[in-house]
Amino acid sequence: MTRDERLQQIIAILRDGKMHRARDLAARLDVSERTIWRDMAEISAYGVPVEGERGVGYILRRAVGLPPLVLTREELAALDHLLTLAEAVEDPRIAAGAASLATKIRAVLPPPSAEDAGEGLATAPTKS
């Protein structure tokens, strides 16, 4: 299992709304507790609303998960345009939310093809 797969698995486990100890998650995923602690820090850094701490446990609150989406190039261009507009508004919460959302989307997009040149989010550098 890759690290990304493990992070997704942790999020899927936490979606039940119950408290999960690192020890139990580690045993279930066949990794160390230390790995779970690191994974939880990364999941939290991605903006997933995880609450908890080492020695207590972790729980997912207010989770909003979207099903996988398949977007056309035109839809990606529209999304890029809307996020650009939202990043420019005066309300700092909206602007920060738009920037964060754009980062999350760019992180999961495949590398751009030659025909995607100049298409906003589709050509944005992806997280490596």
List the helices and strands and how they pair.
Blueprint: H1 3-14, H2 22-29, H3 33-45, E1 50-53, E2 57-60, H4 73-87, H5 92-108
Antiparallel strand pairs: 1-2
Helix pairs in contact: 2-3, 4-5
Provide the descriptors you would attach to this structure in a database record.
single chain, 128 residues, mainly alpha, Arc Repressor Mutant, subunit A, two-stranded antiparallel ribbon, 2 strands, 6% strand, disordered C terminus
Description:
The protein is mainly α and 128 residues long. The protein has two domains: 3-60, Arc Repressor Mutant, subunit A; 73-123, no CATH class. 51% of the residues lie in helices and 6% in strands. The chain is built from five helices and two strands, in the order αααββαα. It has a two-stranded antiparallel ribbon. Strand 1 (50-53) and strand 2 (57-60) form a beta hairpin. Helix 4 packs antiparallel against helix 5. The longest helix has 17 residues, at 92-108. The two termini are 18 Å apart.
